[in-house]
Amino acid sequence: MNILGINAYHGGASACLIQDGELISAVEEERFERIKYWAGFPINAINHCLKEAKISIYDVDHVGISRDPNANLIRKARFAVQSRPSPKLLYDRLRNRRVVGNISTVLCDYLQINKRDLKASFHNVEHHRAHMASTFFVSPYENASILSIDGMGDFTSTMWGRGLGNKIIVDDAIHFPHSLGILYTAVSQWLGFSEYGDEGKVMGLAPYGSPRYVDKLLKILLIQSDKTFLIDQSYLSYRAEGGTMTWYGGKPRIGKLFSDKFQKLFGDPRLSNQEITSYHEDIAASLQVVTELAEMSLVKKLYEDTGIDKLCLSGGVALNSVFNGKILPETEFNDIYIQPAASDSGTALGVCYYIYHQILGYPRKYNMTNAYTGPSFSNSYVESALNKHTIHYSTYDSESLVKEISKSIADGKVIGWFQGRMEWGPRALGNRSIIADSRNSKMRDILNSRIKHREKFRPFAPAIMDEHTGDYFDQSYPDPFMLKVYGVLPDKQEVIPAVTHVDGSGRLQTVAQQVSPLYWELINSFYERTGVPVVLNTSFNENEPIVCKPEEAIACFLRTKMDVLVIGNYVVTR
Question: Is 251 exposed, middle or buried (0-12, 13-18, 19+ CB in 10 A)?
């Protein structure tokens, strides 16, 4: 039983393939197109999944896409009548509806095949049901509470319910135009962060400010007595004017989301090249606070409604790692699971498992414990790529490799670390990572000046051996996918300053030996050498998607001031 899941014509286009319930491959199209959050039809990702499974499209039994044009039709019609959207916005929506509702024809056109030759059945899975499936069906829980929350998909921004065995039961939803994700994006735009995916930058900026404007933002975000929320639409402009989206190839772009009324309340928006003032920092801090208030309200409602103390989260807002880190300490939930591609790219995974379990009724058998689902490359491929350049490289066995590289890290060198299969989701988790010394207080500036060129307020992440988590952080619950922020213990903040944010926190990755053996051995070797079981981990890229192929890793190494490049057991030094 081969099932292909697709996220197309939406940010983070992606594909996923499962065989008899086991995940074979999951990958984002951006890694092949080399454009962040690439939107369009993920033909390269689809071809890779088929290649990894050693099958052709003719062997696929089911194909699904994480959009259902027929979902919420009455609501859509009522909106069209009442709001009179601009012709541009209406055309954009109709065009998107047409292509996602005819995915079989689109797929065959891209593959240049005849649809009549396919045996596959085609499915449209509602966006948030795909989100919910993407987290619950690959979680370790038999039963769980489920919350999906993002910008918007199929006229819905938020959906919640229960996972019971191999079925998902949807209890309720919040529909367009009320969206916590869109509000966060609108304020991010006003703050001068208008590129798709910039919301994470605002989360990093928030700890520099004080939440002085919570009351003002709560005029817009209205938390209800039933613990849901509404958004005062007069402060936003996307209903009838802006908010048009570009989804047909290239980087997605979104029109202006905040209204003149919003601008009157908060003042003129910051331009992207203008100085960030304390006022902007305070707005960011206030936005984070009100977002957490709304999310926490929903999470507590969910527990009250279900009584199930295991929580599965999904959707773009589930990447708000600051909030995620507060759920277990501040609620009745005892366990939490978020798969590594929680945002829209992850819906391709959800489509596969929704079809397999919810539609076909098969029992569950797969638990996603690692994010290593993308391409890998043979030694001969790596050697060929290296030999195309006039660079010297050495070869080490695994034991010698971790000793040599851990010494380089301790000596202050910056390492490009490329191993095995590429990660799924937005975080580099030890297979396509840049690694450095967490103890070096100057390392953030070094990385930004020599490689990353990021805003100074954005933190770098700690990767820690999972058995030492409680020795350095105020929680010990594992987080292998770097989706939670914990507090760094006060006595450890000066020990690992390079990965301690301004508020004393860190968005950590816990590294387990059984999940990432070589990466764990590297950190362990660093620990044996320095007494610190923590390294700095950031994504292997330079203002581009995370590197996928050895050629991209070599190019990034050569054009930046990285000190050492490691691809498998091959080591390149300057």
Answer: middle
